[in-house]
Q: What sequence folds into this?
């Protein structure tokens, strides 16, 4: 990761860029082409009220004459040769509110800042290919807004006035490599756009920057697992809980003698805890594409009345005896262990049909609730299989 040697905007110039975008957003313009062209004009006319558009500025427009007409309806004075097409000649535009004749200038900026703003707008639109026509006007407006509202570390938060149409083009900017990540209102600019940041200091959740940094350093398989858990529509895990679980690290299990004594009494009433838990986590994986948490195991298997620490010890015992497996360094990886019967074993190693008994099963009903069938008399001991090593999921580098 290489920090750019020079930023186009200073902190004060970044504030001026955000003021410029806000001023342009208040103009009564119907189309994105006109809105983006207004940003270009204002960035050049901010001090004197005079701006000149070249043929290169007008080339990406689908209908340059109509777009210039939209600007003229704002009361802007447009000098153009009617005998030539707008895209074939320079167009001089005067913006009366920026000429200095008004008592309150909407953009009181200096000469150097105005020059930097104009260069920043041109560089940003060129970076995403707007001048070549490969990006829409909506994409150009979104790119300018994202850069202006990003901090020096490339992180930013969408402003409240960010247009709804702008959110629709964010996936395109993500695929084009302008932004590297986007979650809800938070985003991360790509390193190639680092020099365009506006040095903003938005209100970002305290753990967001470290969380994004953690995901950047994680391996690709781990990031896929994180995204699966984070975007699980069935679990809807709170963001703070998810970030803390993945970033805090795993502590070695320690259990008090009281919990061990409680387990000695508890296991007599739950002889089928091994196959029950294995079938539950298998059904959970099939629906969620990730493993359950300790709370989900306790509630799903009907152990909700017992202390959570006892549930942790039960899971620990089922892992050491082979009924369950997990990666101790990665949360939400609990799954069936080597002692759990595979679907093939369940069909080939079926007990004799006399007397007929229904096998012990855990399944989800139409409401997403896990129910238990009548236990079978033929189940291996929950403490039978020997200990085993957890399966591997790549850890953060």
A:
């Amino acid at each position: 990761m290489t920090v750019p040697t020079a930023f186009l905007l200073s902190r004060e110039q970044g504030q001026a860029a955000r003021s410029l975008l806000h001023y342009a957003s208040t103009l009564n313009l119907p189309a994105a082409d006109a809105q983006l062209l207004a940003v270009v004009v204002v960035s050049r006319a901010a001090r004197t009220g005079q701006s000149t558009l070249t043929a290169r500025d007008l080339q990406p427009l689908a209908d340059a004459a109509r777009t210039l007409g939209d600007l003229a309806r704002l009361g802007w004075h447009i000098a153009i040769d009617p005998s030539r097409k707008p895209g074939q000649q320079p167009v001089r535009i005067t913006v009366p509110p920026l000429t200095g004749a008004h008592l309150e200038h909407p953009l009181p900026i200096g000469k150097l800042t105005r020059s930097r703003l104009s260069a920043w707008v041109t560089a940003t639109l060129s970076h995403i290919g707007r001048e070549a026509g490969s990006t829409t006007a909506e994409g150009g407006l979104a790119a300018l807004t994202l850069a202006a509202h990003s901090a020096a570390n490339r992180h930013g938060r969408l402003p409240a006035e960010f247009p709804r149409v702008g959110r629709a083009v964010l996936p395109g900017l993500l695929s084009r490599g302008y932004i590297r990540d986007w979650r809800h209102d938070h985003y991360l600019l790509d390193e190639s756009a680092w020099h365009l940041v506006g040095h903003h200091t938005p209100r970002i959740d305290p753990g967001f920057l470290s969380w994004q940094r953690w995901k950047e350093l994680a391996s690709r398989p781990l990031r896929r697992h994180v995204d699966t858990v984070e975007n699980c529509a069935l679990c809807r895990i709170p963001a703070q809980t998810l970030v803390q679980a993945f970033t805090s690290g795993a502590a070695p299990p320690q259990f008090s003698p009281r919990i061990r004594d409680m387990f000695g009494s508890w296991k007599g009433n739950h002889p089928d805890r091994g196959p029950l838990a294995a079938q539950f986590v298998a059904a959970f994986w099939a629906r969620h594409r990730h493993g359950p948490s300790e709370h989900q195991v306790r509630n799903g298997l009907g152990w909700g009345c017992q202390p959570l620490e006892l549930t942790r010890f039960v899971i620990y015992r089922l892992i050491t005896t082979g009924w369950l497996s997990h990666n101790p360094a990665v949360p939400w990886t609990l799954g069936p262990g080597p002692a759990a019967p595979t679907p093939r074993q369940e069909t080939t190693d079926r007990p004799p049909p006399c007397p007929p008994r229904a096998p012990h099963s855990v399944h989800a009903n139409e409401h997403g609730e896990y129910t238990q069938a009548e236990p079978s008399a033929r189940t291996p001991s929950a403490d039978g299989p020997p200990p085993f090593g957890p399966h591997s999921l790549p850890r953060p580098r």
